[in-house]
Amino acid sequence: MATTRIPLSASEEASRSLEERLNLSTAEIGLTVRTTNCLEERGIFTVRDLLQTTRDDLLSISNFGEKTLEEVFKALEAIQFPRPVRENRSPK
């Protein structure tokens, strides 16, 4: 299967299998070039890599802030990965 850097339509994305979606490169999920470059500089090349990275690790990347994090969450939602839920920890 040939890969493309052009984002696919929502219906095309929804029909992909889980494994195919996990193996998509960060460049294929509709992120800006700047965001993709930030992730790749940190060694995050696929959706699988991205899902294994914590929010704090992402925010520790140079030039990666809340707006960029929101862009990542929206791109993941577009390929059927739900937004991570923040844990509400109560003080002991």
TrEMBL record:
Its EC number is 2.7.7.6. Signal peptide: none annotated. Residues 15-77 form the RNA polymerase alpha subunit C-terminal domain. SUPFAM superfamilies: C-terminal domain of RNA polymerase alpha subunit. GO terms for molecular function: DNA binding; DNA-directed RNA polymerase activity. It is an enzyme of class 2 (transferase). Pfam families: RNA_pol_A_CTD (PF03118). Keywords: DNA-directed RNA polymerase, Nucleotidyltransferase, Transcription, Transferase. Transmembrane segments: none annotated. One of its GO terms (biological process) is DNA-templated transcription. It comes from the Bacteria. GO terms for cellular component: DNA-directed RNA polymerase complex. This is DNA-directed RNA polymerase subunit alpha.
